[in-house]
Amino acid sequence: MQTLQGKTALVTGSSRGIGRAIAQRLAADGATVVVTARSHAASESTRGGRTETIPGTVAETVALIEAAGGTAIALPADLTDPDQRDALIRETVQRTGRLDILVNNAGFADYSTIDTMSMAAFDRTVDHYLRVPFALSQAAIPHMRAAGAGWIVNVGSSTGLPPIRPFRDYNKDSGDVIYASAKAALHRFSQGLAAELLADDIAVNVVGPSTAVRTPGAAALLPDGYECEPVEYLAQTVREMCVVPAAERTGLVAFSLHYPWSTGTTVRTLDGTGELPPLEPPAWSNPNIVPAGV
Predict the structure, then answer these.
(1) 8-276 under CATH 2.20.25.90, yes or no
(2) Residue ranges of the Ketoreductase domain (predicted)?
């Protein structure tokens, strides 16, 4: 199923986890995927004063894609650096000749309760989840207009929806309020941008996990025993946002178990060669999720 043959996709934060899975899935459909993260080396993460090395590199993602018969290019960039951020779009177009798909996945979740969060952590969270998608989208738009179409997918979160009431214990002490607020802003940004770009046939959609994906970066933030979902369902949902014109599918905030289940979408393995069974969203997932997107 080479539905993306001849297209270029840039996936940020694709050295591991959700970004890597999205890159693999788009490559399986024929896209040339530009894999980017902060550096060629595994990155370090500091949370609560503790620093740890998180596995995963852009070279590893490229190797996985190429081993499955796909095409990928590694372009490391620190997206909080304006010069590197701007150069990433330019170099993507220089290396591949075009930019059709932008997936804004990169992020950093520094969870702290409001009374303990530093201003640096606040700024870093807002930077990752709102400023960077804004800047990359803005830089990508002229290239998509020139091509006559394009697709922007921003990775959202169910935390950006109103919390379940009565409040769960998680909401009382998880420290995700600023992260969730930034994701809520990203949802609204995406829907507004979708309206602005509809006439240009550039689709803008949001895809988030229905529950959570246990990635190397998220593992430390998830409570013991938390029921997670396979990453393939999220990667497939992103793929669905990149294959039809904006007039047919834009401005959605969709979630990775709910969307395939409600629309009857077949979920394929990351290499595109196999099918996974339909997976019903759990009853305890956020009731504010609209199954087919809103």
Answers:
(1) no
(2) 7-210
